[in-house]
Structures are given as C-alpha cells and as structure tokens.
C-alpha cells in the first residue's frame, strides 16, 4: 500500500488542537490569524541594519559559528550577503542548532535588528535553512492563536490541510450576499489566512476588511438563527394558562401600603399577558436597585395562585431569600395562602415538613435558595418560577427549576436582575428572552451623594458616622473585599467591627458576614431593621436585596477592589427612605487607571443603565456577562459595539430565512448552523 501523502496529525497534536476547540476541518478553517508576518521580501543586510528597529527578513551564508562562554554561554552565528554582515545571537540553543547553522549554510532570518555593543545583531530570530534561490512566499504568513504544545508550523500545517479537504459550499444564498454586498465564503476565508502582499493591512487588523465583514455576518446570522429557533422550540412547549386574577391579586393589591408606580404597572401588564399564554414565558424583569421588583414578582405569583398553581421564588443568598420570605409571607398569609420556606440550612425535620407541604400542594408559594432545585423537592403543580438576581445563578440551575413542572407542562419563568443589560447585548445574547424594564423609582426617594475619600482620612469618616448616628441615621460600613482569602476577609471584618466599636463607644455597632449561622445573621439584621443597631459592619453579604429604608449613610472600604456593578448594588442599600443619603468610597492610593474610572463613574451617576454601559466599556462584553451566560461562546469575530449594524441586518435576515419553515430554507438554515455552531447550540436553550 502506498504511504499517504500527508500523514495524519499524530494523536497528541489532535488532542492539543481539540483543547483549542479545533476538532473538525471547519473548526480549523475558522481559526483565523491574530496577525501576520511579512516574509515575502528579503532586505539586503546593510539596508536592514541601517533601518534598524523594524522587523526585517535577511538572507545570508554563515561565515562564522562559535559558542561564546562569556558573559554567558551563547551561540553566535555571523551571516553575510553581498551588502554586509550580521550577527545572530542565541542565548538558549540546542546542540543540533550548532550543527544546523554550520559555516557555508544559507540562512533566512527574521526579527528586529538591534544595535548592540558589537554592532548590528538579531537576537533569537526565527530562521530557516534554505537553498540558494529558494522561492519566497507570495502572501503574508499567518500567526494563529495557539495553545500548549502547538507551534505555529504545526498549526499552519493542520489548517492548510483542512483547507484542502473542507467542503467550501457557501451557506449564505446568493441573493443575501448581493443584498449585503458580501464577499463569497471561500475567497474571504482564504484571504484571511493568506492575505496577498498588497492587502490593506490596517483593515485586516481593524477587522474592517470585507473578508472580516463576511465572517462576522456569518457568525451573527448563525447566532440569530439559532436564538430564533430556540424561541420557536419554546413556543411549541405547553405551559399552564394562568388566566385568573382574583382574590389573591386583589387582596395583595389592597394590602400594599403604597400604590404601584406607572413603570411597575406597565411591566405587570406585560407579565400578565405572558402568563395567560399556553407556552412558557421567559421574561427578564430589569429594574435598578430599589425600583420595586419584589412586589411585581409577588403579584405575578398571585396570578399563578389564583389560577390554581404553585409559584416558586429562588434567590441567590440566604439573607435575601429570607427577606423575600418574610415580606411576601406577611403580605400573603393574611389572605390565607401558605408560604413555605426552604433553604439548605434548615434542620432535617423542618426541611422534610417543607418538602411535604410543597409536594402536597398545601404550600402555594415556596421561597428559598438553590435548595429549591434539589431532587428531593417535588412540586404538586408548579406554574411559575421566579428567579431573583438571575445572573448569580448558572444556566443549569435555572433549567432544573424550570423542569419541575407537572402534567408535561413547562412552568413560566420570570427572571429578575438589577444589573441592566445594554440594548446591543440584550439583542444578541437574549434574543429568546422578553425584557421588561422598570425605569422609574418609587416616589419620595432622595438622591444619593457619592464621594471618594482617601483611606488616610478614615478618622474624619468615623467622625462623620458618629454625627450621622447621633442624628438618628443608620449606617452601613462595608468591609474590604479580599478575593484571595475568605478567612482573611472574615478576619478583616471582625477587626473592622472591633475598631469601630471601640471608636464609637456610645453607639451600637453590629457585624454581619457570610460565615455566621442564618439565625445569628437574622438576629443582627432584625436589630438593624429595628434601629437598635446604629452602625452595621458588613461584608458583601448585604450586596443583594437588603432593604432597611432608614439606613442613609454607607461607607465602603477599599472601594477600589470592587467592580462597578458591585459598588452600584451596594450603594443601592441606601437612598431608600426620604432622608438625603450619602455614600463614601474609601480608597487606597495610588489608584490604577481602571479603579480611577470606576470611582469616577460612581461619583458621576446613580443610574444603573449608565453604569452598566460604562462597565461594558471598561470590561468588554465577555466579562460583563460572565462566561456562564448563554451565547458568549458563540461570538468570536463580531464586536457588539462596532458591529451593531451587522447585528441588526443579521437579525432581520434570520427572521426572513425562518419565515417559511418548510421548503428549501430549512436546508439553508441547517447547513449554516452546522457550519458555525457545530455542537454549541445547546448554550442557547436556556
Ligand atoms: P428591588 O427592585 O431592588 O428588588 P424592592 O422590591 O426591594 O427593590 O423595593 C425597594 C423598596 O421600595 C421596598 O421597601 C419596597 O417595599 C418599596 N416599594 C416598592 N414599590 C413601591 C412603590 N410603588 N411605592 C413606594 N414604595 C415602593
Ligand atoms: Mg430585589
């Protein structure tokens, strides 16, 4: 049997490629270069030396090869062409290299030329041994994103081989290519891997070259197609019709000590309409910290209960879940509704009792932490799932709760978040999510004044806290975040508490942190709510959801260590009552650029949307959403800020391709999705 021309890549290489996500030929082909090297020209040595400072490629014959021992062991190779001589210096080298670069051998070397003590030299150039008149490449040489054990030559070879094997069918129909003035697929990909010498390199680097536009469009189209399909699949599932709005809804509205804001009424209408449909709602309720999402959630739950179903409310922390439980139980139990409480820290006996109430249907509403998604929890008739601070849960956790429906019906899902998602992100990442926004705060809130203060003025701040407390105001003192060590964070919190208790002997100082038992935590929070504690020293456990309207001063220590949205969440704990509120951000100088920008943003605005926008600017979308969020793995090429126009086109074209679900479009859609998503579509189903 004749040997195959190109032997298959060895196992190890395949494994290493797989680690980069490069499994199929198409994966390899869509692994596009980071940058390029120009190896198409050879510069005479003399000219290269005169130019200096630039990367150049020279070619010459080795005239000297020696190993120097001082100042350290190194290989010194001198090459020469007609114009001059150049030293190639290798600090790390193998014995084989010494032989390879023997006198008389012709070498092509490429890197920056430095002017060292001994004149012009190249340090560790990339080089290869060539014959005289060896042809030069006619296109730029790609440099790929790489991984462990994968050299550029290995990657280049694997990609070049894939290019020969792959099916180049253009998955975007000609009419759309014309409409969007797009390059064809194959020439676009080829150009990106092997750009001709005269290519507009700037456009390549900026990803504004038409070849890039084609890649971005294809990628966005795949994303939009797959999101829209997921949306259809959801609509094909059955969900309970929650039509009734009766005793519970009316009772609850009547019991509220306030009337709903216009924004609350509007989002409630949107939710109510969804709940009546026979397919599962998937709605995100966005509203800034303090905008009043809880009561909207409770009213949605009331609709489920009125319709004979159960509702579940899940919150990310025990403190937050307990607050919800207390508040909602106080509203609902007088109306004859049993509310169950379920968290991991319950005693076994209580947990069993709660589970039984949920399973029998006696509990119409269940509030808790992720304990709600345990296998042991069975619902009698779950109609609505509410997830507070949804971004703190993983995709899988939300899915589990959604799978707890009965009679083959999927419960409706309402997610809540105070972290607003900018429009572009919402459009691309959440195309299968309806979004309701509460864009108005309840009346009577006073604006929060924020100031940044150097840590070395801590004494003045303590004075201020003292004065405020004497005026009857309550104070949060937030301890520094120590990400590396929970133990250290705890220690710092305890120390801060002790120092403050000592510095403020006439005040009651309390401490709450993540390691306390739930009952202890609750006791401290109760004392604070009852204004028996003046100053509450807290770790970030208070970040989400804590609601004590009388608290109007907040001090955040080492504010430079917190992220923007975290600072915004924390600050949202004050400014809930009518007293003018103040937030003092203590920082340790000198501040880095990013920290400076964050503190400045905090001083300038209290608008959660504006803060999210700036956060996006500072951090970029990937990190903004966290790796666990759906869709993130899909966008490699398109940039949501600069490519907004493409997103909009891709969305419209996806809609038109899916319009007729029968006929040839299905094949087009399938082929395009297979090319661009492979197995990654699952990300979008949640
Ligand atoms: P968040 O949206 O941050 O979860 P909450 O639901 O905790 O906000 O509400 C913040 C505070 O505002 C609570 O004390 C709540 O009772 C109160 N509140 C909610 N809606 C209104 C309203 N329409 N008028 C007055 N106060 C309200
Ligand atoms: Mg809340």
Automatic annotation (TrEMBL):
Helicase C-terminal domain: residues covered: 471-617
Domain of life according to the entry: Bacteria
GO process annotations (BP): DNA recombination; DNA repair
Enzyme Commission identifier(s): 5.6.2.4
UniProt key word DNA-binding: yes
PANTHER family: ATP-DEPENDENT DNA HELICASE HOMOLOG RECG, CHLOROPLASTIC
NCBIfam families in alphabetical order: PRK10917.1-1 (NF008163), PRK10917.1-3 (NF008165), PRK10917.1-4 (NF008166), PRK10917.2-2 (NF008168), recG (TIGR00643)
Name this polypeptide is given: ATP-dependent DNA helicase RecG
Protein species of origin: Massilia litorea
